[in-house]
Amino acid sequence: MSVSRRDFFKITGAGTAAVSSIGLTTEAVAETKTTTTNKAVLDYPATLVAKVSDLKINKPVMFSYPDNRSPCQLIKMGHAIPGGVGPEQDIVAYSSLCPHMGCPVMYDGDSRSFKCGCHFSVFDPEMEGQQVCGQSTENMPRIELIYDTKKDAVYAAGVHGLIYGRLANII
């Protein structure tokens, strides 16, 4: 898992400030990590999204993840891409809420990109949801997918990035 430079500084800066402000020793920090209920990694449910044989190239499939208030889109791109799963490593999924202000983002098959109709941000699903242009300053939250070869199915199993409007992706 890669962490952006911004996220690295947020995580390490917040951790350093918290530890130094309450004066914990290394032993106390280690003990706290094992007994606290706050987790750095959330327990996401594995949720069936689609059978690979039902997917059509460049046609989005709508689903909700990690709960019914979080719309997402899964796309079979037709060629291997970074973060892709499935037999051809070409299936990806993203939150459908723009990271700028939470407006609905829709996949445009002609331009092979996600577009936000509110402030005209554009995101590239073939480059892990990277923001191409517009008002957004964040990439789209990518839904982690798992491919089950025996069932020929794709499952949502996590989120990389924070879904708009949330303090944590799982409430």
Features of the shown structure:
single chain, 171 residues, alpha+beta, Rieske Iron-sulfur Protein, three-stranded antiparallel beta sheet, 16% helix
Strand content: 25-35%
Rounded to the nearest angstrom, the distance between the terminal CA atoms is: 23 Å
| Relative helix content | 10-25%
- How many DSSP E strands? 10
Topology (SSEs and partners):
Blueprint: H1 5-22, H2 26-35, E1 47-51, E2 61-64, E3 71-76, E4 91-95, E5 105-108, E6 113-116, E7 122-124, E8 130-133, E9 142-148, E10 153-160
Antiparallel strand pairs: 1-10, 2-3, 3-4, 5-6, 6-7, 7-8, 9-10
In brief, what are we looking at here?
The protein has 2 domains: 5-35, no CATH class; 47-160, Rieske [2Fe-2S] iron-sulphur domain (Rieske Iron-sulfur Protein), CATH 2.102.10. The protein is built from 2 helices and 10 strands.
Structural commentary:
- The structure is a single chain.
- The chain has 171 residues and is of the alpha+beta class.
- It has two domains: 5-35, no CATH class; 47-160, Rieske Iron-sulfur Protein.
- The protein is 16% helix and 29% strand.
- The chain contains two helices and ten strands.
- The protein has helices at residues 5-22, 26-35, and strands at 47-51, 61-64, 71-76, 91-95, 105-108, 113-116, 122-124, 130-133, 142-148, 153-160.
- The strands form three sheets. A four-stranded antiparallel beta sheet has the order 5-6-7-8, with no helix packed on it.
- It is globular and about 45 Å long.
- The relative contact order is 0.16.
- The model is unreliable at 17-37 (pLDDT under 50).
